[in-house]
Design brief:
Shape: globular
Strand content: 15-25%
Structural class: alpha+beta
Helix content: 25-40%
Largest sheet: 6 strands, mixed
Distance between the termini: 101 Å
């Protein structure tokens, strides 16, 4: 479609089509010769390209090319550390209601001398202190705290205790107390109920249901003073 090309392009196309294979080869050889002459003009005769700009780079002494590393040097750490792990304020408020219910149950039981609550980044610790004469009631006090947490989670709109239908609490082996895992569920329509109800999802990464993005651990412990339980 030469008629659709501009006049200059058509003339160039006609001239190019008129060249024979031999003429094309000679033109390529001429172009290579020109590039070689330019390269020779920049070379200093030793085979390396050199010019006025080369003289501006100072020579680096051989001894300073690499310095030995000290085995006593401290590990490098970035100047800007990542943010402390934690929960958004709205999420922490939802979880704190369930934890507060456990604290209130321990205080209202009359068995514990005092109850202390510690909020850490992403978790809570609840410690109930018992006098020696009431230490045998610590197990019953822990059961009251568990019932209060389950009831508060049931009344909550978005907070669940993971494994609430199977084993929501993990008893401590070497101490009196238990652990629980709270989860925030903002949309129940696409939540993974296997994980929420039983505490385990066997589908792993292939699960098409949403797993809670925000979770928090709750540790409830009984502290004995004087005689042991």
């Amino acid at each position: 479609r030469a008629s659709s090309c501009p006049a200059q392009l058509r003339d160039f196309k006609i001239e190019t089509e008129g060249l024979s294979v031999k003429q094309e080869r000679e033109r390529s050889i001429a172009d290579l010769s020109t590039e070689a002459e330019i390269s020779d003009g920049l070379s200093d005769g030793s085979g390396s390209i050199c010019g006025e700009q080369c003289a501006t780079f100072p020579e680096v002494p051989k001894g300073e090319l690499r310095k030995s590393l000290s085995t006593r040097a401290r590990a490098w750490r970035p100047a800007a550390q990542a943010c402390e792990p934690g929960l958004p304020a709205a999420v922490a408020m939802q979880f704190s209601e369930v934890v507060a219910a456990a604290k209130l149950a321990l205080e209202s039981s009359g068995f514990a001398a005092s109850v202390e609550l510690y909020q850490l980044p992403g978790s809570w610790q609840l410690q109930a202190h018992f006098r020696p004469e009431l230490s045998h009631l610590a197990t019953h006090a822990m059961q009251l705290a568990q019932s209060a947490m389950l009831q508060a989670a049931e009344q909550s709109k978005m907070t669940y205790i993971v494994g609430y239908a199977a084993a929501p609490f993990t008893q401590k082996l070497m101490a009196c107390g238990f652990d629980a895992q709270l989860a925030l569920v903002s949309d129940e329509s696409d939540a993974c109920w296997d994980l929420l109800a039983s505490g385990l999802c066997r589908r792993g990464c292939a699960c098409r249901w949403r797993h809670p993005s925000w979770q928090a651990a709750v540790e409830v412990s009984a502290i004995f003073h004087g005689a042991s339980a």
